[in-house]
Every structure is written in structure tokens, then in C-alpha cells.
Amino acid sequence: MQPPAEFVHWMFATGFLLIGLCLLAQAVVGDDVWRRRPWRAYIWPSLTFTMGLLMWPVMVFFTNSTIHMVAHGSWAQSMMLAGAAELGLVRGKLHNRYWRLTMPLAFLVSGAAILIHEQNSWFFERSAFLHHVIGWTMIAGAVFPLVAVLRPRAALWRTGFALTFVVLGVMLYSDRDTAPVFGHLSPQAGAQHR
User: Fold this and answer.
1) pLDDT (tens digit, 9 = 90+) per residue, 39-68?
2) What is residue 177's predicted lDDT score, i.e. its pLDDT?
3) CA–CA distance, 75 with 12 (Å, rounded to integer)
4) Which residue, 93, 96, 97, 100, is CA-closest to 23?
5) Is the pLDDT of residue 72 over 90?
6) How far lies 6's CA from each of 10, 34, 177, 179, 185, in Å?
7) Domains of the chain
């Protein structure tokens, strides 16, 4: 028996929320304080890489079409690349700060994949609406890590980067299989689950 897709979305929402809270704490206290405990620097890059790894089973077991497999595969690859690059920078194996450009790339690839794989209109049902909102949020949110690469000490961009993850987590928690959006549910969407 396969669990509803919303359960998988909620698990990834938890991951996004944890990443966002770690990044927010790091932005508030600063890098020097955050890295007083060396293991803290590894938390959010490890979570990003792990979420990329966990996207592979989602791609294999929870997809029902080729476009979904391609979308989930591209998310897995981009999250793993971004997480690995950040881990390499934290560990000292990578030295060029432009490796941080993998995060805006991951945001752009993920946002585009979410938009491309959602084939229903905005107001078809709640999960279709959320896919559109999440996709555009990720594309717009790519500005924060991009500018943070160019201005690494600017708290505004680092805070925006962290809050983008928090907002994405909240959006994913709002996901339900078949539910109305703003009181509207397309007749083709099927029966409402709750």
C-alpha cells in the first residue's frame, strides 16, 4: 500500500524547515558564533545532501509518469550537488566561494521542474496551486543565495535565503492530495479527501 503523496511532501517540508531554521540561526548569530561548535557548520549542508538522496526513492516509488520521474530526478541531482558543494566548502576541500552558486542553480532547477511537472492550472485544486506557488517562490528565491555569494556578509540576503526555506516548508505542510483552493475544486480533480 502506497501512502498519500502528502505524507512525502510533509517529510520534505520538515527537512526544508530544519534547513531554514539552521540558516536563520546562522544569519542571526553570525558565522563566528555559529561555528564555535564545528559540527554546526555541517548541519544544513548535510540535510540538503540527504534530502537529495531521499528524493531518489521518491522518484522510483512515488511517481506515475515520465515527467514526474524527470522532475524528481533533477531535484535529487541539484540538491545533492548543492549539499555536496556546501559540505566541501565547510570541510575545506573546496576553496573558491563560487561553489556556492550551486544553491541558486538548485533553486532554479527545482523551481522549473516543479512548474513543468504540474500540468494542471493554478485553481484546479490545492496541490496544483501549491506546486505553482512553490515553483515561482523557488525561482524568485534564487536571488537570495545568488546575492549572498556576491555579498557574503550581508545579513539581509542570508536572512532572506533562510526564510525562503521556511516559507517552502510551510507551503509543503499545506499540501493535501485533493482539496479545494479558495473554495474552488475542479470537477475533474475527483472527490475531496477531507
Assistant:
1) 999 999 999 999 999 999 888 887 777 888
2) 64
3) 12
4) 100
5) no
6) 6, 34, 6, 11, 17
7) 5-187 (1.25.40)
